[in-house]
Write a structure and sequence with these properties.
about 30% helix, OB fold (Dihydrolipoamide Acetyltransferase, E2P), Dihydrolipoamide Transferase, Chloramphenicol Acetyltransferase, elongated, alpha+beta
Length: about 425
C-alpha cells in the first residue's frame, strides 16, 4: 500500500516550509530512517527521515519549493502500485489553491499552435497542461510563453515556471500570451532576455560585473520583520554607559576559577543577560509585546538573544530567565546559540520573547541603534568598552548600552529609569548577585 509523506509542522506558527535538498529521487529504494529530504522553516533547518520502507514512487515538490505544512511531498510504496488518486488530489492542491471554475480548470484543454516554439514542452496530445494561477499570471505579466519550462507534476506549467521566465527577463505582451493560450498564434517576443540585449551589456565587464543572488527564505523573513518594525513603530534610542571595572574584574575571576568549580565559561554577554533578567520584571511596559493595539505583559522575563549565523540573524529566547542563576543562563545561552548556528532551533524556541539583547561589543562598536524585534516594545544594544577619565584623573573602562523603545508603548521617563537601573546593576554586579 502506498504511503504519503507530508511536510511536518515545526511549531504552532509555521504554515509552510521550503525544500532545500532531496536526498532520495524517484525510483530510489528507501528504508525506515533514511533521510528523504532537507527543509527549512523561516528560521530553522531540518532533515526528514522516512517512516516507511519501499520505493519512492513520486515526488511532488522540487528543491526550492515552498510547501504548506501537512501537505504531501512524496509517495512511497511498491513499484507498479496505482497512485493516480494520490497524485491527482495532492498535486492539484499543492500547485493551486484557487477553486476550479468553468473559466479556469485545473488542466486547460487548449489546442496548441503549430507555430509554438519547441521550448514549451507542456503539450500532451492536443492539450497544453497549465494551472489556473500560472495562466492568470502569464496573462497579467505578458511573459514569453515560448521560454516557460514546465516543472509541475506530469509536465504541467505552474506558477513558479512563469515566475522563473519573468526573472530571466523573457517578456512578450498580454495579447500575445492570450493568443498563444487560445491556440491562435505563437507569441512574438517584444523584449528578449535582458542579458542578451546589447543595450544592457556593460561597456566593461570587469568594471561593472556583479553577481545576483536571490534572497534566502531567512533573509526575506528578517527583511520583512525589520521593515515592519521601522515603518510601524515610533522608535527612539537612549544611550548611556557605566563603569565596567567591577564587571570585568568578576569576569576575570570566573575565567580563572569558574570552570574548575563547574561553572563553565561565563561571558560578558551572559552577565548582561543575567542583569537584564533581574531588572526587566520591574518595568512591565518594557517586558511586553504590543499586538493589535493591546499590551501583552509577561509574567516572566523571556529574554531573546540576537545570534549571528551563516543563515542570518536569529533570536532564540531564554524563557523565565529571572528564575535562572548566572551559570544556568550561561549554559542556556550557549546551547541556544549553538543550535542557532547549526540550524537546529525550533520555531517555538524563537517565539514568545518579551525583550531582546543584541551585543555588538565584541566587534568594537561603541554605540548603535538596535531595531526592535516586533512585537516587542524594546531592545537593548550592548557596546564595547572605551577608556574614559574620571574627575580625579583616573582612567576607567566605560561600557555603552543603547536602549531602543517603542514610544507608542513606552514613555521616555520609564525607559530612562530602566536603562539607569540596569547600568547601576552592571556597575555593581557582585552586589546584584547577592540579591
Amino acid at each position: 500500500m502506498a504511503n504519503s509523506v507530508i511536510m511536518p509542522r515545526q511549531g504552532q506558527s509555521v504554515e509552510s516550509c521550503i525544500i532545500t535538498t532531496w536526498h532520495k529521487q524517484k525510483g530510489d529504494a528507501v528504508q525506515v530512517g533514511d533521510i528523504l529530504f532537507s527543509y527549512e522553516t523561516d528560521k530553522s533547518a531540518f532533515d526528514e527521515p522516512s517512516q516507511f520502507a519501499g520505493t519512492v514512487l513520486e515526488i511532488l515538490g522540487a528543491e526550492g519549493d515552498v510547501i504548506p505544512c501537512l501537505e504531501t511531498v512524496c509517495i512511497i510504496g511498491e513499484p507498479g502500485e496505482d497512485i493516480s488518486s494520490l497524485i491527482g488530489s495532492e498535486s492539484d492542491k499543492k500547485d493551486e489553491s484557487a477553486p476550479e471554475t468553468e473559466s479556469a480548470k485545473t488542466e486547460e484543454n487548449i489546442e496548441p499552435s503549430v507555430q509554438a516554439a519547441p521550448e514549451v514542452t507542456a503539450v500532451e496530445g492536443d492539450r497544453i497542461r497549465i494551472s489556473p494561477r500560472a495562466k492568470n499570471l502569464a496573462l497579467k505579466t505578458g511573459v514569453d510563453m515560448t521560454k516557460v519550462a514546465p516543472t509541475g507534476p506530469h509536465g504541467r506549467i505552474i506558477e513558479r515556471d512563469v515566475n522563473a521566465a519573468l526573472d530571466a527577463g523573457y517578456v512578450a505582451n498580454a495579447a500575445a500570451v492570450e493568443d498563444f493560450l487560445a491556440g491562435r498564434v505563437a507569441p512574438t517576443a517584444v523584449e528578449t532576455k535582458i542579458s542578451d540585449s546589447p543595450a544592457a551589456a556593460p561597456a566593461n565587464d570587469d568594471l561593472r560585473a556583479y553577481t545576483e543572488t536571490p534572497l534566502t527564505n531567512v533573509r526575506k523573513v528578517i527583511a520583512k520583520a525589520m521593515h515592519s518594525s521601522l515603518s510601524e513603530m515610533a522608535q527612539l534610542t537612549l544611550n548611556s554607559s557605566f563603569d565596567a571595572t567591577s564587571l570585568l574584574a568578576y569576569r576575570k575571576l570566573l575565567k580563572e576559577k569558574g570552570e574548575s568549580m563547574g561553572l563553565g565559561k561565563v561571558t560578558i554577554n551572559d552577565m548582561v543577560l543575567y542583569a537584564v533578567s533581574r531588572i526587566l520584571p520591574n518595568y512591565p511596559e518594557i517586558n511586553a509585546n504590543l499586538v493589535d493595539g493591546k499590551f501583552r505583559t509577561f509574567a516572566h522575563a523571556n529574554v531573546g538573544m540576537a545570534v549571528d549565523t551563516d543563515r542570518g540573524l536569529l533570536v532564540p529566547v531564554i524563557f523565565g530567565s529571572e528564575k535562572l542563576s548566572l551559570a544556568e543562563i550561561s549554559s542556556s545561552a550557549k546551547k541556544l546559540a549553538g543550535a542557532a548556528r547549526d540550524g537546529a532551533l525550533t520555531p517555538d524556541e524563537m517565539s514568545g520573547g518579551s525583550f531582546t539583547v543584541s551585543n555588538l561589543g565584541s566587534m568594537g562598536i561603541e554605540s548603535f541603534t538596535p531595531v526592535i524585534n516586533p512585537p516587542q516594545t524594546a531592545i537593548l544594544g550592548v557596546c564595547c568598552t572605551t577608556n574614559r577619565l574620571k574627575s580625579d584623573g583616573t582612567v576607567y573602562p566605560a561600557m555603552g548600552l543603547s536602549l531602543t523603545f517603542d514610544h507608542r508603548a513606552v514613555d521616555g521617563a520609564p525607559a530612562a529609569r530602566f536603562l539607569h537601573e540596569l547600568c547601576e546593576a552592571l556597575e555593581n554586579f557582585e552586589l546584584l548577585l547577592a540579591k
